[in-house]
Automatic annotation (TrEMBL):
Signal peptide start-end: 1-41
Keyword Nucleotide-binding listed: no
UniProt cross-references to SUPFAM superfamilies, sorted A to Z: Alkaline phosphatase-like (SSF53649)
Transmembrane spans: 347-366, 378-399, 411-431, 438-459, 479-506, 513-532, 538-556, 563-582, 627-643, 663-680, 686-707
Keywords, in A-Z order: Membrane, Signal, Transmembrane, Transmembrane helix
Protein name in UniProt: Uncharacterized protein
Domain of life: Bacteria
Length: 715
C-alpha cells in the first residue's frame, strides 16, 4: 500500500494552521498559571498539611505514663504505635548518628562509628531564614565511602525534588532535614522559636527535643531522667499546640543517650484508632527500624521514597489496642531484649567452657584403660554428657516457650530453664530401646532440633526471638528467617538426621531407599532455608546443597570429586538466585531482603552489600573469640581424639563408622556445609563454630558407644 500526503490520508495536512497563534497564546497563559502554582509551592504553602517528625533521643515506652507525660500519652491515644530498633553503625547509637540515619534512610555515622560517649549535635550556620550544617559535604562523603554507603541528605533532597520545603527546629533536626548540600529552608534553634506560619509552610518539619539527652549520658539517676522526660513532654505539647490541624505527626526516640542500648518509642498520628505498626523490614507486629522512619515520613508526605533508602514505609495491622496495654507490651519486649543482649557474652563464654570441658573429659575417658564395670560407667557418663552438649542449642530456643523475662531473676531463670530443657531432650533420646544403637540417640536429638527449627521459622521465628543463640531487636542483625547460628544448627541437624535414617535403612538392605531419603529430606530442608517467607537464607542456601549431595554420595558408596563440590555450589547459587528473583517480583511492601538484593543486583548496587558481608566474614574470627576458640578446639578434638589418636591402635570414631557407616556421611556433609558457610555467611566463624558444637559431641557419643560391647538390636 502506498502512503499519500493528501488531507484524506494525512490529517495534519488539513489542520487549520491559522489558529496556531491563538493556541500558542493559550498554552503560554496556561503554562504561566502552572508556573505560578509551582512557584507558590516552592515559596512555602503546603495545602496538604506538614509532616512533622518529633525526635526525642532516648525516649522509651517505660518513660510514658498518663500523669508523667500527658501530652505524649494523649497523642498515643490517637496514634499507631511501635517499638523502634535504632541500631546504626556502632554499639551505641548517639543522637547525631540517629539523626543522620533518618537523613539517609540507611545506617549512618557522624564519625568512624567507634564506641564513644554521646554528645550534643553541633549547631548549624544560619543562612537567611534557613541554615547549613557545617561540614556536611565531608560527612556525606565519609558515609558514602562507608560499609553501608549511606546517602546522607536523601530525606531533605526528596522533599526538595517534590517541590516542598523543609524546616528544622534544633541542631539534631537540621542534620535530619538537610538536603544533600546540607541546607534546610527554615531553621529555628528550638521548637519554641518557630513562627506559627512556618509550620504550615513546610512540607517536612523535623523537631529536636533533646531534654533526655541533655540531662546526662552516663549514670543518670531515675529521678533526674523522670524530670527530663517531663520537660520533653511539655515541649512536645508546645509543638502539638502550634501545629495546624492537618499535620501528620511522627514521634520517635531516634537514638540511645547512654551506654544502655534499648528499643525506643515511635508513634504515628493521627490514626483512626490506636493499633500496632509494622513494616516489611522486621515483619513483626509492633516493631520498626530507624531507617523505616525515613520511608514513613516520605510516604506520609506523598513523596516517592528514593532507592538509597533501605527502610520500608510502615503500616498498621488494624488490631485495636489501648495505649496502656501497648506500653506495657513494649516495655516487656524491651526488657527481654536488654536481658538477652546482656546475657549473650556470658552465655557464650560458659558454652565455650562447657564444650572444652566436654572435650577434655572425652579425651580422658578414651585415653585411660578403664576396666570392667568402671569402664562401662565412665563410657556411659561420657556419652550422656556428650549428648547434653549437642542438645544445648535446641534448649536455648525451647526456653522461649516460657515467660522467663518476667521472672524477678530473669537471667538465672533462663539458664535454669535451658538446663532443664537440655535434660529433657537427652532423656527422650535415651528413653527407648534405641539407646543401645551407636547413632540412634544422636539422631533423636538431631531430629528434634531439625523439626523445632523448621517449625519455628515457618511460623514466624518466635523461638529465635531474644534467644541468646538467635537474634535480638536491639542488635538488629536480623528480624526474620534463619539467623546464622540457627542455620548452622539446623543444617547440621538435618544432615545428621538424614544419616541416622540412612543407617536404619541400610542395615535393612535398602541402600537405594537410604539415598532417596537423604535427598528428599535435604530438598525439603533446602526449601525451608531458601523460601523468602521462611528461612530467607542467602549464603546458607548456597552452603547447604554441597552438604546434602556429599551425604547422599557417601551413603551411596560413591567417591567425591572437586567437580561435585563446585557443581553443588553453582546449584546453590542458582536456587537462591531464583528465590531472590521471585521475591523481587512481589510488591515492595512484601519483599524480603532477598528480593531487595535482587533489585540491587539489577541496579548495579550490589557490590556494597557483598563487600560489607565479606568484610564481616573476615572480621568474625577476631570479633568472636569464643566461637573461634570453640571451632579450633572442636577440630583438634575431632582429629586428635577421635580420628587419629597417637596412643591407640584405632580411632574410636573408626569403630563407630564400622557399626554405623552412615555416620561418616552425615559428619562429612555437615563439615562441608559449615566450611562453605564460613566463606559465604557474614558471621563467618559462627557457622562452623555452632555446627561443630553439635556434630562433634554427637560423634563423641557415637565413638564411646562403639567402644562398648554390642547388646541388643538398637533401632
Amino acid at each position: 500500500m502506498r502512503l499519500s500526503c493528501s488531507s484524506a490520508r494525512w490529517p495534519i495536512a488539513g489542520w487549520p494552521w491559522r489558529r496556531l497563534p491563538v493556541l500558542v497564546l493559550l498554552v503560554a497563559l496556561f503554562g504561566g498559571a502552572l508556573g505560578s502554582g509551582t512557584a507558590h509551592a516552592a515559596t512555602g504553602r503546603n495545602t496538604a498539611g506538614p509532616v512533622v517528625v518529633v525526635g526525642v533521643p532516648g525516649l522509651r515506652w517505660d518513660d510514658l505514663s498518663p500523669r508523667g507525660t500527658p501530652n505524649l500519652w494523649r497523642l498515643a491515644g490517637r496514634a499507631e504505635l511501635a517499638n523502634m530498633s535504632t541500631y546504626t553503625v556502632s554499639g551505641v547509637t548517639c543522637p547525631v548518628d540517629g539523626w543522620l540515619t533518618v537523613s539517609a534512610g540507611q545506617r549512618a555515622s557522624f564519625n568512624s562509628g567507634a564506641p564513644r560517649e554521646c554528645g550534643l549535635p553541633p549547631s548549624p550556620s544560619a543562612s537567611g531564614s534557613g541554615a547549613v550544617v557545617p561540614g556536611f559535604a565531608e560527612i556525606r562523603a565519609r558515609n558514602l565511602r562507608g560499609k553501608y554507603a549511606a546517602s546522607v541528605g536523601s530525606l531533605g533532597t526528596a522533599i526538595h525534588r517534590s517541590g516542598g520545603l523543609t524546616m528544622a527546629a534544633g541542631p539534631g533536626a537540621a542534620f535530619a532535614a538537610a538536603d544533600d548540600q546540607g541546607r534546610v529552608d527554615f531553621y529555628a534553634s528550638a521548637p519554641e522559636a518557630v513562627p506559627s506560619a512556618a509550620w504550615a509552610s513546610a512540607q517536612l518539619a523535623v523537631v529536636d527535643v533533646e531534654n533526655i539527652q541533655s540531662a546526662g549520658s552516663a549514670d543518670i539517676t531515675r529521678t533526674r531522667r523522670a524530670a527530663a522526660v517531663r520537660q520533653a513532654d511539655r515541649r512536645v505539647g508546645i509543638v502539638l499546640t502550634a501545629l495546624p490541624a492537618s499535620a501528620k505527626v511522627l514521634v520517635a526516640g531516634v537514638s540511645d543517650t547512654s551506654r544502655r542500648n534499648s528499643l525506643h518509642v515511635v508513634l504515628a498520628a493521627p490514626a483512626a484508632r490506636p493499633g500496632y505498626l509494622t513494616s516489611a523490614s522486621t515483619r513483626r507486629q509492633g516493631l520498626v527500624t530507624l531507617t523505616d522512619l525515613t520511608a514513613g515520613a516520605l510516604s506520609a508526605a506523598g513523596v516517592p521514597v528514593p532507592g538509597t533508602v533501605v527502610g520500608r514505609a510502615w503500616h498498621p495491622n488494624r488490631e485495636p489496642v489501648t495505649v496502656a496495654a501497648a506500653a506495657s507490651s513494649f516495655g516487656d519486649a524491651n526488657r527481654a531484649a536488654e536481658i538477652s543482649q546482656h546475657s549473650m557474652t556470658p552465655f557464650w563464654i560458659a558454652f565455650m567452657a562447657g564444650q572444652l570441658l566436654l572435650y577434655a573429659a572425652g579425651a580422658l575417658a578414651l585415653r585411660r584403660d578403664w576396666q570392667g564395670r568402671r569402664r562401662r560407667r565412665v563410657l556411659a557418663a561420657t556419652r550422656t554428657v556428650a549428648l547434653c552438649g549437642a542438645a544445648g542449642p535446641l534448649a536455648t530456643y525451647l526456653v522461649n516457650l516460657l515467660p522467663w523475662s518476667r521472672s524477678p531473676h530473669p537471667v538465672t531463670t533462663m539458664l535454669a530453664c535451658v538446663a532443664g530443657f537440655d535434660i529433657l531432650i537427652v532423656a527422650a533420646a535415651l528413653a527407648g530401646r534405641w539407646r543401645r544403637d551407636v547413632i540412634a540417640p544422636g539422631t533423636i536429638i538431631a531430629a528434634l532440633t531439625m523439626v523445632t527449627f523448621a517449625a519455628d521459622v515457618m511460623t514466624g521465628a518466635r523461638l529465635q526471638w531474644n534467644s541468646v543463640t538467635g537474634y535480638n531487636p536491639i542488635i538488629a542483625g536480623r528480624f526474620y528467617g534463619f539467623a546464622n547460628i540457627a542455620f548452622a544448627a539446623y543444617a547440621t541437624a538435618v544432615l545428621l538426621t538424614a544419616a541416622g535414617l540412612a543407617h536404619l535403612l541400610v542395615t535393612r538392605g535398602h541402600r537405594r531407599g537410604a539415598v532417596l531419603v537423604v535427598l528428599a529430606l535435604g530438598a525439603a530442608a533446602e526449601v525451608v532455608t531458601a523460601w523468602p517467607d521462611w528461612g530467607a537464607k542467602f549464603g546458607g542456601t548456597i552452603a547447604f546443597i554441597p552438604g546434602i549431595v556429599i551425604t547422599a554420595l557417601i551413603v551411596a558408596g560413591r567417591r567425591i570429586s572437586p567437580a561435585h563440590v563446585v557443581g553443588c555450589v553453582v546449584a546453590g547459587v542458582g536456587v537462591i538466585a531464583t528465590s531472590a528473583f521471585v521475591d523481587h517480583l512481589r510488591p515492595p511492601a512484601h519483599r524480603t531482603h532477598l528480593g531487595e538484593f535482587a533489585g540491587q543486583v539489577l541496579n548495579g548496587q550490589a557490590a556494597t552489600v557483598v563487600s560489607r558481608k565479606a568484610g564481616a566474614m573476615l572480621r568474625s574470627v577476631g570479633h568472636s573469640p569464643e566461637l573461634t576458640i570453640l571451632t579450633v578446639a572442636a577440630l583438634l578434638f575431632l582429629w586428635l581424639a577421635l580420628i587419629r589418636p597417637t596412643r591407640w591402635r584405632a580411632g574410636a570414631l573408626e569403630l563407630a563408622y564400622g557399626r554405623a557407616p552412615a555416620l561418616r556421611a552425615g559428619l562429612g556433609g555437615a563439615f562441608a556445609t559449615s566450611m562453605i558457610g564460613f566463606l559465604v555467611e557474614d558471621s563467618g566463624i559462627s557457622v562452623p563454630g555452632i555446627a561443630l558444637a553439635i556434630a562433634v559431641p554427637l560423634a563423641l557419643a557415637a565413638a564411646v558407644r562403639a567402644l562398648e560391647p554390642v547388646t541388643g538390636r538398637g533401632w
